[in-house]
Amino acid sequence: MDFFILTELCRNVDAYRISTFLQKDRDGKLAMGPIWDMNIGFDEGGRIPMNDWVANYNTYVDKDPWMVPFWWPRLLEDPVFRQAVKVRWQSLRGNELSTGAMQQVVDDAVQVLNKNGAVARNYKLWDQGLGVNHDQAVQNLKAYLTARASWMDGKIGAW
């Protein structure tokens, strides 16, 4: 459930298809993770609409050599999976994934990156005259997280 929730919140279109690891400890259950490869996550992918699940990627992209495996859309149909996701989502939204908590994580990261000079070094090396506005990018990320979580509240809440 956590892998699904984080993948969907971050809208990571690579997560189900190519940037996924399954792991299993001896005598343990199959587990997903770690979460990684967010370069086209959040609002950067543009391959699926903002108001659908990333797990439905194949509905929108049909000629990709790496399609979402069948079990993800199937899980979305499963009432047991949906109920488990609903319980976990509501718990996380009350704590770690509340709007305020997510905004604070962004603000804390920005503070650390600015304090150690990482933002300045990054833009010096990679901006190349593109005119990227860091402050606007931060605000866009915060707005994205708020909007996506709100959309997920409605969808998951209806389960």
Features:
single chain; mainly alpha; 2 domains; two-stranded antiparallel ribbon; globular
SSE inventory with pairings:
Layout: H1 2-10, E1 22-24, E2 30-32, H2 57-60, H3 71-77, H4 79-93, H5 99-115, H6 118-126, H7 134-157
What is the general shape? globular
- Biggest β-sheet: strands ordered side by side in the sheet: 1-2
Query: Per DSSP, what share of the residues sits in E-state strands of 2 or more residues?
Result: under 5%
Tell me how many strands there are.
2
List the total number of helices.
7
Largest sheet: 2 strands, antiparallel
Portion of residues within helices: 40-55%
State the distance separating the first and last CA atoms: 14 Å
Enumerate the spans where pLDDT stays under 50 for 5 or more consecutive residues.
Answer: none
Q: How would you state the average pLDDT, rounded?
A: 91
Radius of gyration from CA coordinates:
17 Å
Query: How many structural domains does the protein architecture include?
Result: 2
Output the structural class: mainly alpha
Q: Give the helices and strands as they follow along the chain.
A: HEEHHHHHH
Written overview of the protein:
With 159 residues, this protein is mainly alpha-helical. The protein folds into 2 domains: 1-77, no CATH class; 98-159, no CATH class. The protein is built from 7 helices and 2 strands; from the N terminus they run αββαααααα. A two-stranded antiparallel sheet has the order 1-2. Helix 5 (99-115) packs antiparallel against helix 7. The longest helix is centred in the C-terminal third of the chain and has 24 residues, at 134-157. The chain is globular, with a radius of gyration of 17 Å. The protein starts with a helix and ends with a helix. The model has no long low-confidence stretch (mean pLDDT 91).
